[in-house]
């Protein structure tokens, strides 16, 4: 029953996160695209769909890893109970944000939206600030030496080759 409850929380919080940022992106698209005076080419629909799929798959992999290995959700107010360095987190420390960024880029290309495409790097900057000033200090305080060792061996944004 506990596992089912964690899965339900993960699904609800993840859906809320997706809907919120999707609404923000869509609002920017509707409000500001006509003010830029430039258009995103029509051929960007296919790459947009591909990026939406890749980013979505990465985000789902992160959610299921948090659920299966960490016994928690991606939400900062309901984090995993156990330290997670498996799945996508084996290669990069913030794959969930990378997935979100890729989804935003894909959505911008799919919708031919300069506003969304300009918002995506701003969103990534906000994620960077959240990671540096909240998540990393919190994880260091919660998990201590294992988290420090993880930070030394796994990069924040770009996987080691």
Which terms would index this structure?
single chain, 161 residues, mainly alpha, globular
Give the SSE layout.
Layout: H1 2-32, H2 45-70, H3 95-110, H4 114-143, H5 145-153
Oligomer: single chain
Tally of individual helices? 5
Secondary-structure element string: HHHHH
* Helix-strand makeup class: mainly alpha
Largest sheet composition? none
What's the mean pLDDT score?
92
How much helicity do the residues have? Answer: 55-70%
Number of strands: 0
Distance between the termini: 40 Å
Radius of gyration: 17 Å
Query: Any idea what the shape is?
Result: globular
Uncertain ranges: none
**Strand percent estimate:** under 5%
Note down, in words, how this protein is organized:
The chain starts with a helix and ends in an 8-residue tail after the last helix. With 161 residues, it is mainly α. 30% of the residues are buried. The radius of gyration is 17 Å and the shape is globular. The longest helix has 31 residues, at 2-32. The model has no long low-confidence stretch (mean pLDDT 92). The chain contains 5 helices and no strands.
